UniProtKB/TrEMBL annotation:
GO terms for cellular component: endoplasmic reticulum membrane. It is found in: Endoplasmic reticulum membrane. This is Triple QxxK/R motif-containing protein. Belongs to the TRIQK family. PANTHER family: TRIPLE QXXK/R MOTIF-CONTAINING PROTEIN (PTHR20583), TRIPLE QXXK_R MOTIF-CONTAINING PROTEIN (PTHR20583:SF1). It holds the Pfam family TRIQK. Its main location: endoplasmic reticulum. The chain crosses the membrane at residues 51-71.
Length: 84
């Protein structure tokens, strides 16, 4: 009998927690589906983004090395022409 009597009276805190928990279930299926698709897209797109950043970094490095040598060699050629 003690269990039945204890379950009949609920504390306000327990009722409040139950009410907050029910709010999560009030989301529509379209909202839940959109959230799931967004999470999957984020997970799948990270591989492409990482690969693109690596390729872009390599190209930038090669471009910097090319510009460095181009500027150094072109100034030496200009000095030789001016001295003649």
């Amino acid at each position: 009998m003690g269990k039945k009597d204890a379950g009949a009276t609920k504390l306000p805190v327990d009722q409040y927690r139950k009410q907050i928990g029910k709010q999560d279930y009030k989301k529509t299926k379209s909202v839940l589906k959109a959230t799931r698709l967004k999470a999957e897209a984020k997970k799948n797109s990270s591989g492409f983004r990482d690969a693109f950043l690596v390729v872009a970094a390599i190209l930038f490095f090669v471009l910097c090395v090319y510009a460095f040598f181009y500027l150094n060699l072109s100034t030496e050629i200009n000095l030789d022409v001016d001295m003649d």
